[in-house]
Amino acid sequence: MLNVDSNMDLLYAWSKTDKDVIGTVHLPASVWKPEQCELLSHLNSAIALYQRDIPFFEQYVGTGRVRFVHHGADTDFFRPDLTKRDGSPGILYSGVYLRNEPMLVRVVKRLAEKMPGLRFDLLVPEHHRNSPALMPLAKHPAVTWHAGLNDEQLRELYQKSRLLLLPMNESAANTAVVEALSSGLPVVTTDVGGIRDYGGGDFLPVVANNDDDAMIALVEQYLSKPKWRDEIAQRCRQFAEQTLAWPLVAEKHLKAYQELTA
Predict the structure, then answer these.
(1) Quick check: 137 and 143 in contact, CB under 8 A?
(2) Residue 130 belongs to a domain with what CATH number?
(3) Same domain, residue pair 58 and 96
(4) Residue 167 phi, psi (nearest 5)
(5) Which domain holds residue 251?
(6) Is position 96 within any domain?
(7) Burial of 5 from C-beta contacts in 10 A (0-12 / 13-18 / 19+)
(8) pLDDT digits over 74-130, tens only?
(9) Residue 77 domain-assigned?
(10) At residue 217, what are phi and psi to the nearest 5 degrees?
(11) Contact 99, 167 (CB under 8 A)
């Protein structure tokens, strides 16, 4: 079950599944409700896409019955392309779920005041743009809104941006993060959830949640030191090629399946 979080009702069929039924969990422990945890206990084994909450999941699935495997990325498709860059520096933000939108608004407004030439591309569904949290940016002159992109348009956004700005309240594995890493795009994010399994605190500097000053300083450091930013970008791409590429991740899944069903 590659996304057990969205298919919990299937677990009603068992009080405890056979060992060859393995569920991959995507969501962090903080969002699991008691009734969902009860259903989770019906699993015999599981795969988690980040390590922090493995002890939590083992409470329900069983000690030693949860394996960690990275979330993968299509590194052949999501790749750097410097020809997509134009003259003005751009910062990309993507997504809705578990994001810290008030922090995003504060950081964008302050950065736009300090650096008038900076532009922000916000990839957010149209129906969500008028949410109370994002309303202050609805007509901000430095912001361009995007939605409904095809794969090639999404890839181009990653390729032409200088940074991915992604303040989060919580996280497990994050699709925007792995696609950015594969695209050689440094991620400026908060030290939450599974971000440390995807370069956070290693080659990617991270900041504490709601530490606006630290996030702004980190963005300024990237933009004022292009050589350093490019070095981090190379580390992002290298990590994706060596750790997140789907052929490698598929092998890790197969190994975990074999171990859990032995």
Answers:
(1) yes
(2) 3.40.50.2000
(3) no
(4) -65, 130
(5) 4-72+245-261
(6) yes
(7) middle
(8) 999 999 998 988 777 899 999 999 999 999 999 999 999 999 999 999 999 999 998
(9) no
(10) -65, -40
(11) yes
How much is the pTM? 0.96
Query: Looking at the structure, do residues 53 and 95 belong to the same domain, yes or no?
Result: no
Instruction: Sheet containing 22-25: give its strands across.
Output: 22-25, 45-48, 66-68
For the beta sheet containing 143-146, the strands, ordered from the edge strand earlier in sequence to the opposite edge, are: 143-146, 119-123, 90-94, 163-166, 187-189
DSSP string covering 130-163, please? Answer: TSTTTGGGTT-TTEEEE-S--HHHHHHHHHH-SE
- Name residue 168's beta-bridge partners: 99
CB 167 within 8 A of CB 209: yes
Decide if pLDDT at 65 tops 80. Answer: yes
The tens digit of pLDDT for each residue in 216-260 reads 999 999 999 999 999 999 999 999 999 999 999 999 999 999 999
How many domains does the chain contain in total? 2
pLDDT, residue 222, reads: 98
- As given in the structure block, the two tokens for residue 199 are 């370069």
